[in-house]
Specification:
Shape: globular
Strand content: 5-15%
Distance between the termini: 16 Å
Order of helices and strands: EHEHEHHEHEHHEHEHH
Oligomer: single chain
Helix content: 40-55%
Strand order of the largest sheet: 5-4-3-2-1-7-6
Length: 289
């Protein structure tokens, strides 16, 4: 099994990005995902580009974001996604429910507009040989209406795409370890079940061919990927099912400092998570692994 260690939320703040780059430079990460829509984006790219030259094997993905900060598209073109100031206003469940209501087609169109703008922003910042890799904040690209919008953009523009994260996390390794049951947040278990349903949809409507077996680890333990539980579960994840070709461990190791907070961090739940000491714990876990 090939094990990938990946960090999301590069570009969420300068400090968080510096912490993620420190892990890259220590050889602790195989890849990172870049949020394109925060005001610190340009400064974070300036920090990233020399590190990419030093670590040419580093995977750099676009971390599509529809929940936090200001949009990349013209706000007047995407009123279903943003408020009067251009800040994102929708929740994950709103997108999921809207996948099955009459607003779906218009939402899909507006999501396509924003996705195109976010892709172009990263493309313009990356070296000329960059090949697009895709995932998203809160795995929102797995939601059927968002997936369809992403497929529209990729196919219409003939973007070469190296990788799209399929957020498929098996339950079996968790269920086979009863001693850890009390350590899993119930909300993450619910999220896992919903995303498993979304995975079925993405398999029926592929954007690019999937190569080999792939599994993610970082949903149920999302925000709390500590070294102790990882070490206890690693063998079970590696032996799961058909012995997957690729196992991706997903971390959020970058913390936003209180002095970095501004009105663009407009979602209280995300702000609490991104300033949480648990992110420092994930940083320390990666250093140990």
């Amino acid at each position: 099994t090939m094990i990938i260690y990946h960090a999301d939320d590069y570009g969420i703040s300068i400090n968080a990005s510096k912490e993620i780059l420190a892990l890259v430079q220590q050889g602790k990460l195989s890849g990172i995902s870049v949020i394109p829509n925060m005001s610190c984006f340009a400064d974070c790219i300036d920090l990233l580009l020399p590190v990419m030259k030093e670590h040419p094997a580093l995977t750099v993905a676009l971390h599509l974001n529809f929940f936090e900060g200001h949009c990349c598209a013209d706000p007047s073109q995407i009123p279903l996604l943003v408020d009067e100031n251009g800040y994102f206003k929708c929740s994950w469940m709103h997108f999921f429910k809207s996948s099955y209501t009459s607003v779906r087609n218009e939402l899909r169109k507006q999501l396509s507009t924003e996705i195109q703008a976010q892709i172009q922003k990263l493309y313009h910042a990356m070296p000329s040989n960059y090949v697009l890799c895709l995932d998203s904040h809160q795995h929102s690209h797995m939601i059927p209406v968002v997936w369809d919008a992403l497929r529209d953009v990729v196919l219409w523009n003939h973007y070469p795409v190296q990788y799209i994260r399929i957020s498929r996390e098996p339950l079996a390794p968790y269920l086979s370890t009863p001693a850890l049951y009390h350590t899993y947040p119930p909300v993450n278990l619910i999220k896992n079940v919903i995303i498993q349903f979304c995975t079925w949809y993405t398999k029926r409507h592929p954007i690019i061919p999937m190569k080999g077996n792939y599994y993610l680890w970082g949903l149920i333990m999302g925000g709390s990927m500590d070294a102790d539980r990882i070490n206890r579960l690693m063998d079970k994840f590696q032996k799961y099912g058909q012995d997957p070709d690729t196992l991706e461990l997903l971390f959020h190791p970058g913390i936003i400092l209180p002095e970095e907070l501004s009105p663009e961090y407009n979602n209280p739940d995300f702000k609490a998570a991104e300033t949480s000491p648990r992110r420092q714990k994930e940083y320390e876990s990666l250093m140990k692994l």
